[in-house]
Amino acid sequence: MSIEFSGITKIYGDVTANDDISFIIESGTIHAILGENGAGKTTLIKILTGQLEADSGKIIIDGDEIKNNAFLTKRNRVGVLGQDPLDFKNFTVRESFFAGLGKDKYWINNKNTDASIINHASNYGFVINPETKISDLSIGKRQELEFLRLLYNETQIIVLDEPTSGLTDDQKMSINLATKEAVKNGATVIIVSHKLMEVIENCDRATILKSGKFAGTFDMPCDPNLLTKAMFQNLSRGPQVKSKHHLNNENIRIDIPDYFFTKNTHKNHNEPINLQKGSIVAIAGLQGSGTEEFIRSCFEESNNYPKIKLFQKKTREIQKFQKAYVPSDRIEKGLFKDVTILEHFAILYYKNKPFVNWKSLSKKAEKHLTKLRVKGNLNNYPTDLSGGNQQRLMLSMLPNQSSLLLLEDPTRGLDIQSALDLWNIIMERVQTDILVVFNSSDTDEIEKYADYIVCFYDGKIRCHHPQSSNDGKNFINHISGLIESK
Amino acid sequence: MIERKNSTIIRFLSYLITLIIILTIVVVFLSMLNDNPFNVIISIGEGAFGSFARTYRTLLIFVPIALSCAALSVTFRSGMWNIGIEGQIILGAIGASMIARSIIGESQLSPLVSLSAGVLFGAIWGLISGILRTTSNVHEIFAGLGLNFVGAGLVIYLIIGPWKRIGVASTSGTDIFPQTAWLPDIGNGLPLPALLIVGVLYLFLYGMLRWSVFGTILKAMGSNPYAAPRYYINADKYIIYSFGLAGAIAGLAGGIQAISFYHKLVPSISGGFGFLGILIVLASSQKLHTSLIVSFLFSGMISAGPLLQIEYDIHSSVPWLLQAFVIAAWVFISYSSLHIKSAYFIRGLTNKFTTNLLGLIK
Amino acid sequence: MMLENSVATIISLSCPLILMVIGETISERVGVINLSMEGSVMLAAMLGFAVSVMTGSVLLGFICALLCGSTISAIIALFDVKFGMNQIVVGFILSMICINLSNFLGQSYVNIPGPRIPSINFGIMNEIPFLGKIIFSQNILVIFSFLSIFISWFFLFRTSAGLLLRSIGENPEAAKIRGVNVNFYRFLYVTVGGAFIGLGGAAFSLHAKYGWSDSHTANFGWIALAIVIFGGWNPVRASIGALAFGALQIIAMRLQDVFIELAQVLPLIPFPTMIIMLILFNRIGSSSGNWIPSTIKNSIIGLQPSA
Fold first, then answer.
1. How far is CA B92 from the centre of its chain?
2. pLDDT > 90: percent of chain B
3. Which domains does chain A have, with CATH numbers?
4. Which residues pair with A455 in a beta bridge?
5. Residue C49 has pLDDT above 90, yes or no
6. Which residues contact A225 (CB under 8 A, 6 or more apart)?
7. Closest-CA residue in chain C for A76?
């Protein structure tokens, strides 16, 4: 089925996620949608699948205009493979396969249905065991299974969102083969991806979205530089607030556990990173490449990732209360909706004391707020503030003895001006005695502010080096996986 | 949440609307029982406050309800459902009874020690709930229910077993405690000490929840426990504290029930006041002053129960039923912001009306 | 002989609980927890008895009880799906209303006689040793409840409709994206669950604990909720829990003559025992997927009950 997007627009408050997007996906092709984080890819796909409603514009499939959710309810016409497998963890393979289908009225005979799915799988070169519990499978296998399910249902439009993340090489090859088979059988496949090389190899065409707008459709194969140029636009190079580096003599050492490295990582991976306080470190990588987990692991232990240890003065490990962590989900993980701003400060500064001196706290809090230019007064609730102000609020709530500032995607959801403002504040006020570590997929931001760059690709570190080095200047290629291991 | 942003007029109007709706429900409900609902309402007043003795009885019912509400305000503040409150009340009563029946019961200090024991027992029961909840996520409600049953079983066992009345084991309760063990009252029976306890506790809680760090942290945990690590707070710790505190207050209620209202231990020592407290706090959006007022009104209704039964042949379940309906309506109104939307609507109407009127005059 | 009798009695007396846990299992499997069960069971029991006394027909009593149970469950589903109100708040309030409503409306039916459920004569089947006594001498209701265990199990785990039901409770997002009309099925199955709960109520007042009295079915709603979790949201395991509970009750009854005090307490012991076992199982089995319906998990953790 051919899919035409015509004038699709979707606006969230200040942000225009999709801005009058129009292009065509030909029937029976593998068509990629490329773009930076925040370019609008996910929104567009969600509009296609009916999860979101466009504010204006229409979607035309095989010549017929689609009225929103009608598409999804005709099951099996659109299938989605998201980054997180949309399956049922506690079901068996067999159950997850057939759930929601309504294909067979009764389902008494396990042997027959088992045989049919095993058969189906082997046609594509996959081996599955219907008895296995989904939770026992790796993410890669679960994605494979989902794909098989879509093929089994003869889904006509298959949407793959970052299909090969978390997969082994073998699995990647299998998925790619399966994709080609699906197309042979008449399906149209849409792939949302960051991986330029894979897109060039496997897709027929690629459409680029940039800042919510359509930025061109390219036939594959094509010169990767063409693509990167279209994808990563240089923002208006505002006044270069190049850091007045108040570089402390104090050194901070980051010990990164082996977990984050692979055989593809370049030469210097085993060396710990040594930086001076006052530096800014960027953990660069496209969305989903593992940068957020890195930042989080710097802050605390988690179930999935080993802790990253940071040391000051050679041997003293930086304690939790010396680290300030600003999560990307501001409201969900960083602020309390029903608590006033003043009370936030109370929690931070007085939590071990019985009584609060509200007067002196107010004064202190006001000082912090003005220092960081937060627009809002102490009796406001976090939700009263704009996104940019929330971010500044979180920055203003730094514990007294911070040595480390961890910023998760600091300018996420901020408009250009707020983002600039935020960085000005970080550079002017915050940076002096603190090591700033932030993750971002905004290459312009990284280029502008980072002294040191750690490049992530596909969940692991590719390399890390100062911005001033040659590798530093080419970091965009590293994070897109374009430069293979040396 | 919406209330913060509204002008005082809207807020006042919305309260008024809620009140009117609730009163309408009461009147309609009562008129289904009796031709003249207003007579019934007057009788409720009579039955609750008609004489000194009746008033004192009402107050004695008011105390445990108010204390339940206080306890629940703490746990709801931290975002928890303390359905185990009935068990905590029971354990408090058991603790107090234990002291009252012992040698200490003969001394003047008995009430003080009793109530302290009640607080302790209730707190422990609450802590168990809290610990179970933080270590095995789902079972906040089921742990609470289970502990309720354990408490109920325990109290029955004690009443017909080790603490049974001399001579005859009866489920009507233990022997009456010695007078020294009773919570003293003033004059003809005004339970002033009990009321003072409630008053002091409410003041303390109000201050604590509003102004102390602990109260603020509880509120934060109730709002978003996931943000806690960022502020170096262990969410679990505070949740356990809130359960412990709630249990302590509930235990106090149970203790007062034992040594003040009943002067002995009976199987139904918690009287359903725990669950009633849940209803009240839900409806009053955790506001302490509202809970206090509603507790008072409801205790009047319950206290008037016997009189209603005699005069109008109204079954004892009626006051409770009416209360449940009132709460249901109130929660629905609050949740759907019906009162606020109506307030805006009315204001809009009056604005239109006045502009039209002015237009006519000109 | 003694054993046969006891087993038969256990099966017979556990019938209401079995129906209740089957109903609640269905409801929770589709993601809705019915905290009103304590009240709705009581109300259904009262209505069932009252109607059958009024009309002389036991069947009508059961039908009314069934409708009562499904209506109350439907109300919870309505508030959850349509108004987005917290299931637990709605359930609890409904519970309180229904408990008192049943006492209020049931006043005139306290301790009066009424029609009984006829029993079926299976003829020679009765002569089968052991099985004959315990199964075939029961009345229709008990046999129905027994069959329901297997039918519900089969439905949930061996049919595609049941699979659909479970998928809604397991991961509603994934179900939605596969084109399942989550809201509709939630409504449907919660109501079906409620029907079973209603039947369970009537099974009390018209069979297991005949008649009506003040708070006649007290505590059984809460017990059923616990058993459902204890049974891992599986109708067979939950029913076994119900039977175990019934057994304990019988033991308590027999012991009553011997240990008076213990007899009073024994009926109450199963609840905490189960809760404790529940907690132990959860701690041991938490990583190996002790299945918790995701929507229920979200309802309970981090509740914000303030209106």
1. 15
2. 44
3. 3-231 (3.40.50.300), 251-479 (3.40.50.300)
4. A284, A463
5. yes
6. none
7. C178
* C-alpha–C-alpha distance, residues A187 and A75, integer Å: 15
pLDDT band at residue A429 using 50, 70 and 90 as cut-offs: low
Model confidence over C59-116: pLDDT tens digits?
Answer: 999 999 999 999 999 999 999 888 888 888 999 999 999 999 999 999 888 888 888 8
Reported residue count of chain B is 362
Task: Measure A138 CA to nearest chain C CA, in Å.
Answer: 15
- Provide, as residue numbers in chain A, all residues whose Cβ is less than 8 Å from the Cβ of B229: 299-300, 325
How is residue B334 written in tokens? Answer: 């609050």
Q: Beta strands A273-276 and A280-284: pairing type?
A: unpaired
Q: How far apart are CA A100 and CA A103, in angstroms?
A: 8
Under an 8 Å CB criterion, which residues of A touch C?
A: 49, 51, 72-76, 80, 86-91, 95, 98-108, 133, 135
Q: Which of C103, C119, C82 is nearest to C39 (CA)?
A: C103
pLDDT band, residue A468 (cuts 50/70/90): confident
| CA pair distance C33, C24, nearest whole angstrom | 8
Which C residues, 18 through 77, put their C-beta within 8 Å of a C-beta on chain B? 35
Listed as own residue / partner, the contacts of C188-191 with beta carbons closer than 8 Å and 24 or more positions apart are C189/C26, C189/C27, C189/C29, C189/C30, C189/C165, C190/C27, C190/C30, C190/C32, C190/C34, C190/C73, C190/C74, C190/C76, C190/C77, C191/C70, C191/C73, C191/C74, C191/C77
Where are any strands of DSSP class E within A78-156?
Answer: 78-81
Which pLDDT belongs to residue C99? 95
Rounded to the nearest 10°, the torsion over CA A277, A279, A280, A284 is -100
Determine how many CB atoms are found less than 10 A away from the CB of residue C246.
22
DSSP label at residue C127: G
Q: Which of B219, B226, B233 sits opposite A332 (nearest CB)?
A: B226
Q: How far is CA A374 from CA A369, A379, A382, B287, C126, in A?
A: 5, 13, 11, 31, 83
Cβ atoms of residues A19 and A9 within 8 Å: yes
User: In this structure, what are the phi and psi dihedrals at residue C180, rounded to the nearest 5 degrees?
Assistant: -80, 135
A50-84 pLDDT tens trace? 777 888 888 888 877 776 555 554 555 788 887 77
The candidate with the shortest Cα–Cα distance to A403, out of A446, A368, A432, A427, is A432
Collapsed DSSP state (helix, strand, coil) of residue C297? helix
In 3D space, the residue among A415, A72, B193, A110 whose CA is nearest the CA of residue C181 turns out to be A72
Phi then psi for A7, rounded to 5 degrees?
Answer: 65, 35
The stretch A131-145 carries a mean pLDDT of 82
Q: Which residue has the higher pLDDT, A190 or C265?
A: A190
Q: H/E element holding A11?
A: strand A3-12
SS3 readout for A426-467 = HHHHHCCCCEEEEEECCHHHHHHHCCEEEEEECCEEEEEEEC
